[in-house]
Amino acid sequence: MCANFGLYCALIRLGLYSFGRRVCCTCRTPPEKPVFQVLCLGLTGSGKSAIIYALSKDSIDKLEPTVGFLIKPLEFTDCIFEMKELGGADNVRIYWDRYLSGVDALIYVVNSADTADNLQLASQELTRILQNKQLNNVPLLLMANHHDMEDARSMDQLKQIFDWPIISTNRQCIIHPSSIKNTDTIEQGFKKLCGKLQINASSPGK
């Protein structure tokens, strides 16, 4: 009961934050760098929060699974990501579809050393969320986290598990290996996504 109440409160706060951001952005001085709204999803234990905290130079020693959401800006050389991470537990994933509006990119984090069942579930959840019309043509970065572990799948194996030829049809997709022990591997993936978003933003019709 308490856990569900905490989740509901977190989701309400996220809704209020999203509304407030839309109102404030209308009168805010535009930043020097392009700002992109990036949604981060993945199952519990995939390492979503750890990746975000690692890039923000915050300690990850006492991280716990996200209940509800996490919001944190990440600044890179050429752009800023307004990161919005939603928890990956069963009782949170059912709300993912409610927070897709205005998303410029999706980062989906998977534990590449996870069990076969969990990887299959992660694939099913990604396929489901990509079917939402609000994510049409939204670029995808699949972060193959924990790739330093002995049981980690190769990129080719993950592409097969996640039906890469299908999900990458009519969508810009990147798959990138990462490790919490090596922040550079994480930053490289995020910078690849930043580059694609910058090209898209500067292309005709944007």
UniProtKB/TrEMBL annotation:
<protein>
    <submittedName>
        <fullName>ADP-ribosylation factor-like protein 15</fullName>
    </submittedName>
</protein>
<dbReference type="GO" id="GO:0005525">
    <property type="term" value="F:GTP binding"/>
</dbReference>
<feature type="binding site">
    <location>
        <begin position="42"/>
        <end position="49"/>
    </location>
    <ligand>
        <name>GTP</name>
    </ligand>
</feature>
<feature type="binding site">
    <location>
        <position position="49"/>
    </location>
    <ligand>
        <name>Mg(2+)</name>
    </ligand>
</feature>
<dbReference type="InterPro" id="IPR042292">
    <property type="entry name" value="ARL15"/>
</dbReference>
<feature type="binding site">
    <location>
        <begin position="145"/>
        <end position="148"/>
    </location>
    <ligand>
        <name>GTP</name>
    </ligand>
</feature>
<keyword id="KW-0479">Metal-binding</keyword>
<dbReference type="InterPro" id="IPR027417">
    <property type="entry name" value="P-loop_NTPase"/>
</dbReference>
<feature type="binding site">
    <location>
        <position position="88"/>
    </location>
    <ligand>
        <name>GTP</name>
    </ligand>
</feature>
<dbReference type="GO" id="GO:0003924">
    <property type="term" value="F:GTPase activity"/>
</dbReference>
<dbReference type="InterPro" id="IPR006689">
    <property type="entry name" value="Small_GTPase_ARF/SAR"/>
</dbReference>
<keyword id="KW-0342">GTP-binding</keyword>
<keyword id="KW-0460">Magnesium</keyword>
<feature type="binding site">
    <location>
        <position position="66"/>
    </location>
    <ligand>
        <name>Mg(2+)</name>
    </ligand>
</feature>
<dbReference type="GO" id="GO:0046872">
    <property type="term" value="F:metal ion binding"/>
</dbReference>
<keyword id="KW-0547">Nucleotide-binding</keyword>
<dbReference type="Pfam" id="PF00025">
    <property type="entry name" value="Arf"/>
</dbReference>
